[in-house]
Inverse folding.
């Protein structure tokens, strides 16, 4: 777990240095969380070398997912989709590739060690969970929107929810 988080945070910093010309502390922490989210399905079932690989891929893939989210101007202030969503999907699939019974005899081997069926089950699990999450979330948002609006008007959002809804600024020093 620590290896994946460390390598992912370092990878994120390197990518930020290359593409943004300045790594940030928030980037370091986001990279570490990406590594943690990605290794979670595989922790206890992979070798330390595989954990390093997972961390490297987590840092790069999640960095690109967050970059894409920003490019598409999607509303995801905490980058949950890019870090936890994409990282989790990547971790489940990588578990299906690099799982190793030498590190956990109660587990199973991944694709690299002949576990094609296990890999297929991991991919199927990702597809089923993605479909379930989409359908459930869409249904819940539809239902909530029947009771109260899910989104506020654009002008309210631009002026600030704290000011419009509560009559005060939560962070006055940032108002100007």
């Amino acid at each position: 777990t620590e290896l994946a988080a460390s390598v992912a945070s370092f990878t994120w910093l390197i990518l930020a240095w290359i593409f943004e010309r300045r790594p940030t502390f928030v980037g370091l922490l986001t990279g570490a969380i990406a590594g943690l989210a990605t290794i979670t399905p595989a922790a206890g079932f992979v070798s330390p070398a595989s954990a390093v690989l997972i961390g490297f891929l987590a840092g790069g893939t999640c960095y690109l997912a967050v970059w894409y989210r920003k490019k598409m101007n999607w509303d995801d202030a905490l980058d949950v989709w890019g870090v936890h969503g994409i990282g989790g999907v990547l971790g489940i699939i990588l578990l299906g590739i690099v799982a190793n019974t030498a590190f956990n005899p109660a587990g199973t081997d991944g694709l690299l060690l002949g576990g094609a069926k296990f890999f297929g089950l991991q991919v199927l699990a990702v597809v089923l969970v993605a479909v379930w999450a989409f359908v459930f979330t869409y249904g819940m948002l539809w239902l909530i929107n029947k009771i109260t609006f899910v989104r506020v008007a654009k002008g309210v959002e631009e002026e600030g929810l704290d000011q419009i809804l509560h009559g005060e600024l939560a962070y006055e020093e940032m108002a100007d």
In short: The mean pLDDT is 91. The chain is about 70% helix and 0% strand. The CA atoms of residues 162 and 169 lie 5 Å apart. Helices lie at 2-20, 25-39, 48-72, 80-98, 116-147, 154-159, 161-166.
